[in-house]
Design brief:
heterodimer, A: mainly beta, 11 strands, about 0% helix, globular, B: 5-stranded antiparallel β-sheet
Amino acid sequence: EAGVAQSPRYKIIEKRQSVAFWCNPISGHATLYWYQQILGQGPKLLIQFQNNGVVDDSQLPKDRFSAERLKGVDSTLKIQPAKLEDSAVYLCASSLGTVFDEQFFGPGTRLTVL
Amino acid sequence: QKEVEQDPGPLSVPEGAIVSLNCTYSNSAFQYFMWYRQYSRKGPELLMYTYSSGNKEDGRFTAQVDKSSKYISLFIRDSQPSDSATYLCAMSANDYKLSFGAGTTVTVRA
């Protein structure tokens, strides 16, 4: 079974530039999550999708972050404009979407904002 | 106060030693307790999962939950160099939202 795929793996940008990350979840997984993991901290949930719809985006900085999940499969997370404090690893995870099931994480995209 | 507190370590032990990791939490609504292992440059992977209080054993790994003290633990017996990783505790109430600890970095010396 293929795992969660993410690209790019690494990205370096200047502050105020924009950047986008892509995630392809495990086939058949209804729920998709984006997490932000700052160095030395645990992952923090940014947004959760159930199929096409947003379940929780309470911790997404909506003035600069946006996310979409096209046709309930792939997802894109965008930051525009980026700030220095956005430097982190952005993890995508997916799960079947039943009552409490395992979240499978992708390898993450490491973002450095200079 | 953070919702989940975890000592970041680092923790260095010789091969064969018992590794003891723990987390405390403040949200009494948490009922699902997990331990994730994260290797360098990789995403977290689920190691152990416990619902409510009690112990759970899986091979060399034992997870304990004490809801009365809001304290969870993970023990790794006969530790191996391949156990060297960051261990993250995570918790959830009756929904999908996970609250993670900061992670403890463990090195097992051969």
